[in-house]
Every structure is written in C-alpha cells, then in structure tokens.
Design a protein that fits this description.
Blueprint (H helix, E strand, L loop, with lengths): L8 E4 L2 E5 L5 E5 L3 E3 L5 E5 L3 E4 L2 E8 L12 E5 L6 H4 L2 E2 L5 E4 L5 E8 L14 E4 L2 E11 L5 E5 L12 E8 L12 E6 L12 E3 L4 E4 L6 E6 L16 E6 L4 E3 L9 E6 L9 E10 L8 E2 L15 E2 L4 E6 L3
Parallel strand pairs: 6-13
Antiparallel strand pairs: 1-4, 2-3, 5-7, 7-10, 8-9, 8-11, 11-13, 12-13, 14-15, 15-18, 16-17, 16-19, 19-20, 20-21, 22-23, 23-26, 24-25
C-alpha cells in the first residue's frame, strides 16, 4: 500500500512511473484523492475584557477541506471555571459569526467556554487552552471581568455613641467599590440634614461631600435628625442596590443611629409636544420636556423605534438637551 497522510486538498493524485526490460516507459496518474489534515478553528473576538458591565463576543468557526461535521454541538457558556455550578445551566447554542452578549448581571472574573468542533475527516479544533467536562472538551477564553454591583455605603458611628447637643454627632460617610470599576470621582455628590424626610426636596439646602467626609448631625438641636445622601456611583454607572437615594435616622435624644436604608422615590415626568401625530408626513418632530426634583440632566437619551414595548436601558445611546425638539425623518 502507498499511503499519503499529510497536507490538505481535493486535487491529490498518485503518479506512477514504470519501465519494461526493453526500456519502454510509462507515466500514469490515479484519479484525485481528497486529503484533509487541517484542524478546524474556533476563534472569538475579543478574547478577554477588562472591567465592564457586559461585552459582545463574536464566535467564528473556520474549516479548510472536508467541511464541518453536521454532528457538531455548537454551544458556549460563561463561568468562573469549568467546575462552576453555573457551567451547565448557562450552556447556550450559537452559529458561526454570531455576536453573543456575556456578563449581564455578573460580577467578577469569568471565562468563555466554547465546545470543541470537528470536521468530516475527523480533525478536531485545537487551541492553547482546552478543558474537559464529562465527555466534551471546551476551548477556554478570557478572562472577562464584569461589574454590575453599585458601591456600598457605610455610616459611622453606627449606634451607641453618646450625642451631646452642644457638639452634635460627627458622622463619617464611607463608600466602598464592590465590583472593581472604581468610584466615580468626577461627579459631585451632595448631602443634607433635616428634621423630617419627604415633602419638597428642592426646599432643602444641599451641601457637597466626597467619600470619607465627616458631617455633623444635631449640633445645638434636640429631636430626630435625618442625614440624606446623594449616593455615589461607580465608573460604569452602577448605584447602590437600595435605590437612587438613601437616608439614615439620627436621634439626638436616645443616642442611636437607625440604619435603613429606606428608599425615597423622586418622580420624573416626561412631556411630548405634540404627543404623537397621525398626519402622514416625511418629517415628524416633538418637543420633549423632562421635569423632576434633582433630575440628572446628563442622563437624558432618546431613540425612535416602532416597538410597542420599552427598549432596554443599554440600547439608549443618543443624548439630548432638555426642552429640545427631536426630529425623525424618512418615516415609513
């Protein structure tokens, strides 16, 4: 037998040369042989990510020669390790060229696992990092680092401190980054002290503070005081899970600090002028006015869509200025 077991192509021929004893010669070839000794490939882009809320990863399969086997199980998962309990529960299907979103709601360092594939000649995909789970092998990519948790607030002292009306109570406000994105120090934050909470917040006197600041509660006054904090966010926009505003109760009569946090709602109203227009036109526009106590003007974004359900927060990418007329052209 004459064997050829290297290289790839569908045009391999075996050529034979022969002579008889009288010196006559012949050269003749076989019909073509199909050879495939090239492994298919699994590639992802990006192969890793620094701290983010989520990222889109494109998974691409490539094959030269015999073609990808139809028996391939095309699956991927995101997990901290191959022994992670979430490994199997997070397995999802994909097609070559798909962009898959990973990291939503996750915190910490994770890896992307893509199941090994084979071609019709029996070659299997190989990379530098392959791990085995049961009867299957997976390509491991990463790390991808995610942060979807807001900072943690600590107010000290927490309780049991004697409060003197003459001096009041010094309270230190500390914020700790949990997910790794870092505290957003570019934004200015505010606090206020009040005898009550609720009502018209714009009537309060708000003062600036930064993490680590000490503020004085109850100096020269009796009764219950409330320290209201504008909560610090991280560099990815994550805020404390308690809500958009936090407040803590300081009681100068019985020397206790009652931690909540209690969530305070700040209503926001959006007005469209006009609110819709059923007259057919090539261009439509409406003036948008957003009102609300302590409204974050920098958060305003918009998008035009034909969907009857609210788009996801992450899909809003275009900012606008309050009380601006927004225009839509090419309406169909």
């Amino acid at each position: 037998d004459i064997t050829k077991n290297t290289e790839t192509g569908n045009d391999w021929k075996l050529w034979i040369y022969a002579e008889d004893l009288a010196g006559n010669s012949i050269i003749e070839s076989s019909d073509v042989f199909y050879l495939d000794n090239t492994a298919p490939t699994v590639t992802v882009n990006p192969t890793q990510a620094t701290v983010c809320k989520s990222t889109d990863v494109q998974i691409t399969l490539s094959e030269i020669g015999s073609g990808l086997s139809t028996s391939n199980v095309k699956q991927y998962t995101v997990a901290k390790s191959i022994s992670d309990t979430a490994f199997d529960t997070n397995l999802k299907p994909y097609n070559s060229g798909d962009n898959v979103t990973i990291g939503e709601g996750l915190d910490g360092e994770y890896y992307l696992y893509v199941r090994q594939i084979s071609d019709n000649a029996g070659n299997v995909s190989t990379t530098d990092n392959i791990e085995t789970k049961g009867d299957a092998k997976y390509h491991k990519f990463g790390p991808y680092v995610f942060d979807n948790t807001g900072p943690k607030v600590t107010v000290t002292p927490a309780n049991g401190e004697e409060i003197l009306i003459a001096t009041g109570l010094d309270v230190t406000i500390t914020w700790e980054d949990i997910g790794g994105a870092g505290i957003d120090t570019a934004t200015q934050y505010y606090y206020t002290v009040s005898d009550t909470y609720g009502g018209t917040w714009s009537e309060y006197q708000w003062d600036e503070y930064t993490p680590g600041d000490t503020v004085t509660i109850g100096k020269g006054e009796e009764g219950t005081k409330y320290l209201l904090l504008d909560p610090i966010k991280d560099n990815l926009g994550n805020k404390p899970s308690e809500g958009n505003w936090l407040y803590y109760e300081i009681n100068t009569e019985n020397a206790t600090i009652a931690f909540g946090p209690y969530v305070m709602e700040f209503p926001i109203e959006i007005n469209f002028d006009p609110n819709g227009n059923t007259t057919w036109a090539q261009t439509q526009s409406t003036k948008v006015t957003v009102t609300g106590t302590r409204l974050d003007e920098s958060s305003l974004k918009y998008q035009w869509t034909t969907s009857t359900t609210a788009p996801s927060v992450d899909s809003f990418t275009t900012s606008f200025t309050n009380e601006t007329t927004l225009v839509k052209t090419d309406v169909t």
